[in-house]
Amino acid sequence: MKALTDVRNVYVHAPFCARRCCYCDFAVEVDRRPDSAEWLAAVRTELEWVEGSGTVSLAPSLETLYVGGGTPSLLDPRRVAELAGVFGHSTRTPGFEWTVEANPESFTGRVARRWAEGGVNRVSFGVQSFSRAALRWMGRLHSADDADVAVETARAAGISNLSIDLIFGLPAAVSRDWKGDLEHALTLRAPHISLYGLTVEKGTPLARAVGERRVTPCGESRYREEYLLAAETLARAGYEHYELSNFALPGFASRHNTACWQGAPYLGLGNGAHSYAGGRRWWNERGWAVYRDQVIRTGSGLSGEETPGPRQARLEGVWLALRTRKGLRAAGLDAVASSVADRWKTRGLAERKDGAVHLTPKGWLLLDALTLELDAALERSDPEGPVGPPGASGPVDGGGPREIFKYPGVRHETM
Ligand code: SF4
Questions:
Q1: Whole-angstrom distance between the N-terminal and C-terminal Cα of the chain?
Q2: Which end of the chain is more exposed for a tag (fewer CB within 10 A), N or C?
Q3: C-alpha 17 – ligand 1 centre gap (Å)
Q4: What is the pLDDT of residues 301-315, one digit of tens each?
């Protein structure tokens, strides 16, 4: 295995949640009082194995560290802060972005202060909605007030680079005012907002309820309306829609996710985490106990790996590039592919600007179909030609790349 020395972006998974939300199929372990020391020890051991085995070598200075879950705010905050020691001096560089995800109900003043002291400089809150009925339906443990308080608590501790997650596309039977939620979110003045379209995932309580006809999922037209309303509302408030599900005030785009979308190598540690480097992808055991025991036994959390071939890499490259506002380099398109992009432009699905093709919000709603259409055009002209970023396969938060073509449903990830 070839060792790499340029990994600058790291994801660490913290799998514990006090309760499982009705729609969640993430790598989660339900545990109200997780053993934080055991979690940290497993992460440390795995990192030592990864570096010792020559799988990956971290760059002398990391650019980003992202701790996702699960609910990292459920862990003893001292252990989260100690991650700085696990990664050493590489986290003490100017511009280093250290994000940790939190749920409002467990994000106390103590958590905020400890995280800030340890070097955490960005917090991503799983807010989802400000409607009591919607939060209860989802199985969330916090109230709308908790979300407001959590944002203020972070600021009081000196962390002002904040993101909030909202879910749209809830079943019509759930009492929820999407416009009101967006307006409430804007009052918090968080510089970053992520949107998630609710999807029904196999094996979840939601999937069972849908299967038994107790719940009717959101129809396509309302899904579309809610997404477009959010895109318009947030753009009007000054947020740049820089990726299909992410919005940021100037200067506040997530550096971690952006690096992954651009095909930079990244290392994932913890159960269910994915990694990508040197054209190869690998992922860890999904279950916490299986992962932990394997790491204790062998040092490695590895479960599987793959190296996408040129065609798969091209398809994924197109998909990744089209996710972002930056889009796809027009120079990489031949006449056939270029005429496809022109047709999209005529239909209001794409724009051509600054030497690139990028999708509009209407186009993002069709991301998978458009990716396949463009890839088919490229296939006809150059069966193995590269386009867009190299073959990484998706967002890293939430444990690494998620399945491609999960759409409709903007990024589906850990909250
Ligand atoms: S959605 Fe988030 S908080 Fe809810 S169970 Fe899944 S990871 Fe935990």
A1: 34
A2: N
A3: 6
A4: 999 999 999 999 999
Q: Is 9 in the pocket of ligand 1 (CB under 6 A)?
A: no
Question: By percentage, how much of the chain surpasses pLDDT 90?
Answer: 82
CATH class of 9-261: alpha beta
**Cβ–Cβ < 8 Å for 6, 59:** yes
Give residue for tokens 């109900």. 105
In the chain, the amino acid numbered 89 is: H
Which residues share a beta bridge with 266? Answer: 276
Q: Which fold has domain 310-381?
A: Arc Repressor Mutant, subunit A (1.10.10)
Q: Summarize pLDDT for 24-57 with one digit per residue, the tens.
A: 999 999 999 999 999 999 999 999 999 999 998 8
Q: Is 413 left (phi over 0), alpha (psi -120 to 50) or beta?
A: beta
Which atom of ligand 1 is found nearest the CA of 28?
A: 7
pTM to 2 decimal places: 0.92
The boundaries of every CATH 1.10.10 domain in the chain are 310-381
Any ligand 1 atom below 6 A from CB of 188 = no
**Every domain range in the chain assigned CATH 3.20.20.70:** 9-261
* Nearest Cα to Cα of residue 352 among 43, 344, 30, 204: 344
Give residue 92's identity as a one-letter amino acid code. Answer: R
CB distance 399 to ligand 1 below 6 Å = no
* 176, 139 Cβ separation under 8 angstroms: no
Query: If you take atom 6 of ligand 1, which residue's CA is the nearest one?
Result: 24
